[in-house]
Amino acid sequence: MQKISTLIFSEDLSTSEVLKLLVSEFDNLELLEQTSDFSKIFEILSNITDKSLFIVDLSVKKQEKLDLMLKISQQCPNCKILALSDNPSVDLIIQIMRAGAKEFLTVPILKNEFFDAINKLISQLEEPKKINKCKIISVFSNKGGIGKTSLASNLALELSKITKENVALIDMNFQMGDITTFLDLKPSFNISYMLENIDKINETFLLSTLERYKNSSLYVLADPPYFKQADTIHPKQITKLFNTLKETFSYIIVDAEASFDGKNIAALDNSDMILLVSVANLPTLRNTQRCLELFDKLGYDKEKTKIVINRYMENDEIKEDDIEKVLSKQIYWKIPNNYFAIMSAINKGVPVSIINSSTNVAQSYKDLAQHISDNLYKQNMAKRFENILNNF
Asked: Where are the CATH 3.40.50.300 domain residues in the chain?
């Protein structure tokens, strides 16, 4: 039986000794010689062509070890990481997971918890299973012209940059989609083509067919070029498309059509989160209120829909408290009004961060992407580390 090479990294002598004793109880683990040299650790693990485990204690030198973990997770695909800490926090666990650790334990170590964690990692190494963690986020408004497409395209790009994971941006505006204009793309394929070939789709097909935005991990699925093509698309096909995309992408951002037809409802039904976009004027807020009422009738969880106020100005006549009172719902995010930066980006066909990343609106898109990704990390971890998180 091929043994799994295991490397322990902890400056605390007692923790290190406990770990060595626990590892020695596994017949299929082979303990490697310990070292505190960061570059040496990476060299050892990167030279192992077979399976390996890296057990790292972040009680000291936290940031340096997080950087090392990220490097190992990106360049050593056959290595699984177990992280430890004597001072865990929600933020630290988020950083640990983002750096590539598959399991986390607190110090001092409990034997049964350690064995459970190691057995999970061994199972992943011996029978790797693709865990579907994709999140679908629809950007929606039943009123046009309030910045929905700008939000969807900028959010998708920022998520791809922050998470370094594959992000799909889908234009569901079947009659007059603007995603390709906003990003200055001329895709060879569109959503109609994808649906016609749905049974042939795999990861290779997707990544070669969807239009990749420059050198990013953002892939765009454009709207049909002809109106009549949209008539042949059915709601069940949208659901099947989403289920297929979920196998390849970590995030799917949907620029939803400003309507409640069957195809759009299918997209909203399949979404984990709906960013309901509004602006601070009474007619739009009344439309937003009606959307919330309809979502309630559709049976959506109240937490599924998040209110985003676009073009927000602190000196608006309608204040934040007024909006929340009208909608009976808290505002999730406010995108500041910056007409010149947005229009310059749209006219040049680039995301606003490329025009000027220091503008308030570019920073807001980036912060929103960070906020969403962090919260999704917390949700995922809450299920896996419920006992740990309950202590905070």
From this structure: 135-383
